[in-house]
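Hi support team,

I've been running sequence recovery on a batch of backbones for a student project. Most finish fine, but this one hangs at about 90% for roughly twenty minutes before it completes. I'm not sure whether the input is malformed or the queue is just slow. I've pasted the structure tokens below so you can try to reproduce it. Let me know if you need the job ID as well.

Thanks,
M.K.
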């Protein structure tokens, strides 16, 4: 097999020119002189035998061949970085930290139980725990900000492992107008009432999950705030069963007697970061999250 004529450093240089918008900007980003950047790219074109860039006004633009080769090179550079990262892990033997991103609707106690078991095995490894809602988990995973992620969504291009189901129940304050009807409730009954919805924390493609299209909808930033609003008599909502057990026991919340849909069951999955080699600490925590996901949810009286 012939040795490559173009080095990874040369591909990184071309990527910097394109990503930063020009030779001068790439030189600043890479802490090199502009002349060395220009020479590197010119040398690449000579070695490859095809033009990669053309001058368009004051900017350098990719040729058709440059576009194709740059796209392929990104995967090459990424794989090289992953290889170096793997070597670093092998040298160190253990990760310095594990980043865990969890959907706020997932049962916190299951995560706490897993982390409590992990702590004596962690060898000083830090856990950075972050809560998101709906697509916020997916964004954190796709943007490389999570080593492990727990989501109730089936994420495209990701391989998840079943964790557990979370029950959501429709609730309102006992004095809410819906409870005063003293009968089974229909979709039409809910349409006329204020629904409390928790905001999707994702920025790119937020989802509107669970909204019925009521005449009024108030959107809040967290499930805890939604619980407080509904417990205070403001609207109705579907809330995770494990989060409202105390309010149901104290009588500040009461399940709505819906004909259909009073309870919703969401399946949660554990996703690893597919672009990172899973180290020993991440693997142990992953196994513990799977094991402790089997703990039952507390029963809630209807």
């Amino acid at each position: 097999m012939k040795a490559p004529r173009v080095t990874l450093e040369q591909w990184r240089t071309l990527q910097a020119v394109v990503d930063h918008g020009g030779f001068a900007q790439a030189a600043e980003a890479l802490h090199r002189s502009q002349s060395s950047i220009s020479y590197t790219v010119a040398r690449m074109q000579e070695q490859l035998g095809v033009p990669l860039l053309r001058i368009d006004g004051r900017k350098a633009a990719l040729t058709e061949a440059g576009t194709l080769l740059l796209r392929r090179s990104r995967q090459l550079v990424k794989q090289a970085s992953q290889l170096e990262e793997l070597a670093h892990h092998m040298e160190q033997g253990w990760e310095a930290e594990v980043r865990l991103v969890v959907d706020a609707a997932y049962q916190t106690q299951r995560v706490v139980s897993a982390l409590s078991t992990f702590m004596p095995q962690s060898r000083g490894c830090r856990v950075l725990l972050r809560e998101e809602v709906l697509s916020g988990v997916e964004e954190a995973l796709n943007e490389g900000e999570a080593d492990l992620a727990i989501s109730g969504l089936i994420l495209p291009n990701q391989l998840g492992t079943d964790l557990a189901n979370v029950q959501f129940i429709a609730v309102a304050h006992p004095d809410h107008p819906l409870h005063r009807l003293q009968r089974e409730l229909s979709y039409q009954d809910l349409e006329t009432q204020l629904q409390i919805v928790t905001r999707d924390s994702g920025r790119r493609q937020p989802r509107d999950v669970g909204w019925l299209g009521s005449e009024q909808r108030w959107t809040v930033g967290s499930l805890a705030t939604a619980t407080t609003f509904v417990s205070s008599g403001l609207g109705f909502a579907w809330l995770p069963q494990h989060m409202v057990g105390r309010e149901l026991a104290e009588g500040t919340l009461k399940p709505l007697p819906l004909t259909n849909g009073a309870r919703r069951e969401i399946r949660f999955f554990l996703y690893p970061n597919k672009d990172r080699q899973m180290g020993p600490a991440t693997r142990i925590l992953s196994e513990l999250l799977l094991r402790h996901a089997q703990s039952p949810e507390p029963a809630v009286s209807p």
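--
Follow-up from support: It reproduced on our side and the slowdown came from queue contention, not your input. The two ends are 70 Å apart (CA to CA). No action needed from you.
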